[in-house]
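re: ur msg from earlier - yeah i can do the nicotinamide-adenine-dinucleotide complex, just paste it... oh wait u already did. ok heres what im feeding in:
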Amino acid sequence: MFYENLKTKKILICGGAGYIGSHLVRELSTQSAYEIIIFDNLSKGHIKSIPNGIKFENADVRDKRALDRLFSKYKPDAVMNFCGSISLRESVVDPLEYYENNVVGTIYLLQAMKKHNVKYFIFSSSAAIFGNAKEMPITDDARPEPISPYADTKFIIEKILAWSENAYGLKYVCLRYFNACGAHESGDIGEDHDPETHLIPLTLQVALGQRDSISVFGDDYDTKDGTCVRDYIHVTDLATAHIRALEYLIRENKSQLFNLGSGEGYTVREVINAARNVTGHSIPDIVEARRIGDPAILIAESTRAELILGWKRKYNTIESIVASAWMYHKTHTNGFKDI
Ligand SMILES: NC(=O)c1ccc[n+]([C@@H]2O[C@H](COP(=O)([O-])OP(=O)(O)OC[C@H]3O[C@@H](n4cnc5c(N)ncnc54)[C@H](O)[C@@H]3O)[C@@H](O)[C@H]2O)c1
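and the outut:
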């Protein structure tokens, strides 16, 4: 059983009250006896996403003293870092805020790990680091060429991690994913970003009567129906990859970079049609101009994660992903405010 080695370990989950972090917490906590400690400044996360009995500290990753206190108090064996600012477009408008929160914050975290002798680190990187990659699907060895401050913050951390391994013996895994989507099978937790920018929750808001239509940015791309193709990975599949990566780090004591994608991708129209089928709502769409910087196709393959981590996606169709998101959204029409 792949979770076995983790049972006695203490895992510090930074940003564990956010969308992906909360799904990881749910998966880890239901697998039994790991000690989970979440810290999050709740700038975007939701206290109500945290299951009863899980330790939680309201702290900011840019607060060195708070980190020192946390590491002294809990003595974690491994750290997973989900926290940070996540909007590619916002990062273009306010790059300094992004470099501070994502880069400076993670440096402080790594310094605390070094001081307290914590060796294992798992980082939420992003397929955005590949920019306008020419070869599709993007492979594990493709060359990063970030084209936004957000993506650059992720790539900078990847480089810092490589140098930190060299200097201090830190062992790390970077998971490069994009378009996390869907919701936990219980229907208790799901995606609740503010502002929401992701296609699936925005489309489901139309079905809920919270917006009139969904915008399709460009329908004249060189794709099967003219709309952009993106890779959608279910959030529980991402959570499983994190757990496998933790196991791998502890077992192999080696650093590694993994893409997490489906290698297939769906057009914007296919996602909207899936939402129509799942909800039974007509979901009107409006075609608007292309957005600057949107490549026609962005899909990533996960050969290395499949081979080395034995990672397999459970959610293989866009319908199953949208159906899980719908189960959450139709019972939490105002997100976590409904609990
Ligand atoms: N959502 C996606 O599709 C996606 C894709 C690729 C990569 N990622 C990366 O995955 C990670 C998690 O994404 P998410 O969608 O769950 O985002 P999220 O905003 O839901 O979660 C991030 C969490 O970090 C917390 N946080 C932010 N700044 C903090 C700080 N200074 N101190 C402490 N806590 C802080 C927020 O309160 C929030 O709970 C991010 O690093 C993101 O860049 C996300």
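cool cool. Residues 15, 17-21, 40-45, 60-62, 82-84, 86, 101, 105, 124, 126, 177-180, 193 surround nicotinamide-adenine-dinucleotide (CB under 6 Å). ping me if u need the other ligands too
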